[in-house]
Amino acid sequence: MSAIRDFFTRLFGRADEAPNRKAKKAATPGLNPADLSAEWLIVGLGNPGAKYAATRHNVGYMAVDDLLAKSGDMLEPVTGHQLSAAQLELGGTKVVALRSHTYMNLSGDPIAPLAAQLGVAAENIIVIHDELDLPAGKVRIKKGGNENGHNGLKSLSERLGTRDYLRVRIGIGRPPKGGSIPDWVLAPVDASAELDSTIATAAEAARLIVAEGLNKAQQEIHSRSK
């Protein structure tokens, strides 16, 4: 399944599943944050809603969905927080994958309080996001550094009080000369085998960081495309 088709299926469900999905939603108001336990957080950045779902700015959302697709876990709203989360294990390590219900420029507002509540330090928070300064299709991992104008990262740095969280950067390239950056990042990303591979690589990068550590994850992911 392509990254975009998978994203929409997980966001809205299939038509033949709609009645059961609605019934489950009515019976399940959301996850109790007290029931969540994590050594790591994996955060996919993006904007909520169908209008933005398949845009370049939402590749972080897509990567979290790819990560969860391996185990069949689903994001669920967390009671008292403007975000959805899923509890999972990667290599025996407890992880909470999540995404905010706020718009990109307010991403840190719900994420930082949940991280504090779960006792997860910034160095154990992995943020998957779109990156203008990388060519489309390239994935890179780094710790800390400037936000390079990315409003989601700016919000996270402000609310976490540090830049020292980990980033999985998904290249989307820059618009043609004279083009608008807001229009570029909010434009639909073309469905393709390359996109599917890029999203899968970003999800794998997050898994490797948790399982093998930052240095080994960088060596593995960066060796795939120079």
TrEMBL record:
GO terms for molecular function: peptidyl-tRNA hydrolase activity; tRNA binding. The record marks 47 as: Discriminates between blocked and unblocked aminoacyl-tRNA. Keywords: Cytoplasm, Hydrolase, RNA-binding, tRNA-binding. GO terms for biological process: protein quality control for misfolded or incompletely synthesized proteins; rescue of stalled ribosome. Its EC number is 3.1.1.29. PROSITE patterns: PEPT_TRNA_HYDROL_1. TRNA binds at residues 52, 103, 105, 151. One of its GO terms (cellular component) is cytoplasm. It comes from the Bacteria. It is found in: Cytoplasm. The active site is at residue 57. SUPFAM superfamilies: Peptidyl-tRNA hydrolase-like. The record marks 130 as: Stabilizes the basic form of H active site to accept a proton. It catalyses: an N-acyl-L-alpha-aminoacyl-tRNA + H2O = an N-acyl-L-amino acid + a tRNA + H(+). The keyword RNA-binding applies. InterPro entries: Pept_tRNA_hydro (IPR001328), Pept_tRNA_hydro_CS (IPR018171), Pept_tRNA_hydro_sf (IPR036416). Monomer. PANTHER family: PEPTIDYL-TRNA HYDROLASE. Belongs to the PTH family. Catalyzes the release of premature peptidyl moieties from peptidyl-tRNA molecules trapped in stalled 50S ribosomal subunits, and thus maintains levels of free tRNAs and 50S ribosomes. Hydrolyzes ribosome-free peptidyl-tRNAs (with 1 or more amino acids incorporated), which drop off the ribosome during protein synthesis, or as a result of ribosome stalling. This is Peptidyl-tRNA hydrolase. It comes from Corynebacterium aurimucosum (strain ATCC 700975 / DSM 44827 / CIP 107346 / CN-1). The lineage of its organism: Bacteria, Bacillati, Actinomycetota, Actinomycetes, Mycobacteriales. The gene is pthB.
